[in-house]
Hints:
It is a single chain. The chain is an alpha+beta fold. Helix content is about 35%, strand content about 25%. Strand 3 (about 50-55) and strand 4 form a beta hairpin. The protein is elongated and about 95 Å long.
Amino acid sequence: MSAFDVIDGQALADWLALACAAAGGASIGIVDADGRLLAGRGAEGPDRRAEGIRLDGREVGTLVAAEPVSAELVAVLARSVELVLNGARDQAERARVGNELAIGRRIQRSLLPRSFPEVDGWTFAAHYEPAREIGGDLYDVFRLRGDAGRIGILIADVTGKGIPAALLMADVRALLHAAADNADGPADALGRVNRILVDERATSLFVTAALIAIDVETGAARYASAGHEAPLLVRADGRIERVDAAGPILGAFGDASFAEERTVIAPGDALLFYTDGLTEARDPGRRFYGEEPVLATLGAVSGRSAAAIRDALVADVLAFRGAAEPFDDLTLLVAERRPSGAASTA
């Protein structure tokens, strides 16, 4: 592939034709290292002038012209072609990156649930706002296979961006679903997925993840983390507890072990999962949102539905961010236990 392939061929031919006309009808063209004509008109003979065309320090062609074109004009024309090449390449690169981001966003969107399972006595609500690049965030609520009385809740974040991050997240989502269905608990599930990523996946990307299994009748919950932000458990009376468990990021260490913690989600309690795009949101002055506003908002809306909690958090962080560009994807998921028979979705 020639460096000139990024330029519209007709546009380059028209430009060279104008240069020929301005030079009194002289032959002006561009040839490759073997003398093959790439554009314009060949200029043969002893009076030919030539000037190399360079891109990133490498000669990619030669501009040739016959008299009466001066050597000075040939040099100016060659430098002009270099500018055109750089501009065309930059435009092609921008188009390539834009296409990659669009594909990555479609992959990422396809991983997010369009609706949540209907679970008597529970409401779920989520918010996902992508930044300009693909961050690889994921959240999900799903019934655990073979046990209609238990659900799994998952949130994860790939450390990279672009299509590689989106593809890895698609893989991790499937692996975590399968592991959660067959493992002894969330810690065992994370361990299984980690071993697969380390032993079988050739990637330099890593994943943070939080996984919880909940008995929907009793509220008994088992939780494990792979380097992810600890979920926050908001009690009906406004108290806030951090549901944390030790564990490294997925895909980094083959012999990693994951701790498992237990808690009970009582009627009126809510559980907030989020990625670092929430606490690391920035205002126009580049200040971080932080965790304190999250805790304050949660305390003010305790006992309300998942959708109300989500809306309050999103409204507060967006007001803080103002006109600033998003620093990272903003992702959060709320699960709230309602009295038995209450609406199950929000």
